[in-house]
Amino acid sequence: MTRRPHGQRPTIEDVARRSGVSRSTVSRVINGEPKVRAEVVEQVRRVIAELGYVPNQAARQLVTHRTNAVAVVADQPDDRLFLDPYFDCLLRGIRRELALHGAQAVLLFLDEPDDHARVADYLGGGHVDAAVLFSLHPGGRLHEMIGRLDIPAVFGGRPLLRDGDTVRAHAYVDGDNRGGARQAVRHLVSLGRRRIATVTGPYDQEHSAAERLAGYRDVLPDAPPELVERADYTRQGAAAATAALLDRCPDLDAVFVASDLMASGALETLRTRGRRVPEDVAVVGFDDLAEIAEATDPPLTTVHQDVGEMGRLMARLLFERAEEPRSVVVPTRLVLRESA
Question: How far is CA 303 from CA 90, 243, 270, 298, 332, in A?
Answer without folding.
Answer: 16, 23, 20, 16, 6
